[in-house]
Amino acid sequence: MNICIAGPALSQADRNFNDAVTDMCKRLKFTVLLQQADGTPEDMFAGDLRALEQTDVVVAVLDGMSIDPATAWKIGYAVARGKSVIGIQTDQRAPALGIHVIEQSTFIVRTLERLEILLRALDRS
Q: Which pLDDT tens digit goes with each residue over 92-103?
């Protein structure tokens, strides 16, 4: 089963968290599709499209004071294509999402431990 990690990648902290989610998914034997902020915008967009088309589930990092615009776009694209989306919001300082379309289309967990429990429960048949 393929998992696409969607989240901001503009700081070292962002990339470190994405790497932690990636490592967890790989440990659980998922194939991970992760595109960090490298390359030209055109290359990144093309890579994002490939990853989203090949994925079964999107794990969207929702931390920060607002959702990263590219992450929000990936959530919308994935939902439109019938993909499952799991959001993770661990930042206790962040306000409630307040974006009803995200809350309605994304199953949201608050810790890496809860994310792991949910991923373990996915049917991989």
A: 766 555 566 777
